[in-house]
Amino acid sequence: VKHYLENIEQQKHLNAFVEVFGEEALKRAAELDALPANAEKGKLHGVVIGIKDVICYKNHHVTAASNILKDFTSLYSSTAVQRLLNEGAIIIGRQNCDEFGMGSTNENSAYGPALNPVQNDVVPGGSSGGSAAAVKAGLCMASLGTDTGGSVRLPADFCGIVGVKPTYGRVSRHGLIAYASSFDQIGVLASNVEDAALILEVIAGKDEFDSTVSVKEVGPYSSVSIESDRKYRIAYFPEWLEHPSVDPEISSQLQNLLTSLKEKGHQVEPVHFKLTEYIVPTYYILTTAEASSNLSRFDGVRYGYQEKKSFGELTDFYKQNRSAGFGKEVKRRIMLGTFVLSAGYYDAYFTKAQQVRRLLQQQTEEIFRDFDIILAPTSPTTAYKSGEKIKDPLAMYMGDIFTVFANLAGIPAVSLPLFNHSNTLPFGVQAMANRFDEVSLLRFSHLLM
Ligand code: GLN
Description:
This is Glutamyl-tRNA(Gln) amidotransferase subunit A. This protein has a domain at 2-223: Amidase signature (AS) enzymes, CATH 3.90.1300.10.
């Protein structure tokens, strides 16, 4: 803990943590050290973990990087955090992110941007930017992030680490501040597959506080390094590799990887995926709709920031609080979501998007009848300069094209560092598997790294 606290202090400019639980972490470490030698130790005994500022930890602040939740204190711990603690982990602090998880660069944060440790003038990715930066810079061993549309995988990709998003319904969302409830999942950022797999094994599984969590047994995730000569059936989408937005270097490295997997005896085949152009619009219609409804609870009465001004009507009071409390991107999404749900447009946008989501899910199921893994880029580009896309939300949304697919389909996905040389920006490869087949996904990932 001392080592990580020192690193955090030295790397303060990264703005990866918005609050450090220093004293408390030291105390907990001392308590864990004081356990008798023969005491039973948890699977994560002494493991130092940071949590994204959307995950509740009892008696600690949680704000979703938003002014609307300034100084708010959690009344209970999320299931994920409680399970980490039960296995002996030490929570070292809460980490910077985009407000309510809305963004791809960590620039939409009430605490200011987090920086990419690889190169400080490029973005760390988002929305779990602080969580990825912290792992990359050695400020903690691993982080819990959340992935509604790539927010674990994209920052992992931009920072050159491992990011795992489990199947929708694999990890409890109890105590996670909602963005889009039918998409949100807690995931893990770590420097290698073994660490991510072990932490996922601890936090996954049924929970009476979240009815969308599956009761399916959690598999032996942490056994990833078991030797096996399993040959995988791997699909890739040529439309994605040839997509005009993809950096040629990324697609050629991915081609090389596919060739080398084939040479090693895996079955590697192209699959034509015809719905590519619908992915981003469908995602942004459905998630903004869900967000506009989820965020209606923040009105300054039940939660959060209250403008201390006089007001007439109650609606004026709500308006004042929400106008002052939410940032620009969050407001944009609430307005968009309210629009697509409004009486005159509901069928044209929301219903249509739900139908497209169903089609995407059906096509995905068909693919996994014949394949174990889909391989793809995580992002079309490497990390770009801070400030470059923040003024052009559509360009930023388009960068989510390859990640939001897994959230729409509900399947598990990882980003693994594919290209990680010290003098250039890193980038990753994305692997996806069938729903609840985390075991294959993690074992395959281990094979790749
Ligand atoms: N870029 C995505 C968005 O802004 C990230 C969402 C997420 O996974 N939290 O919606």
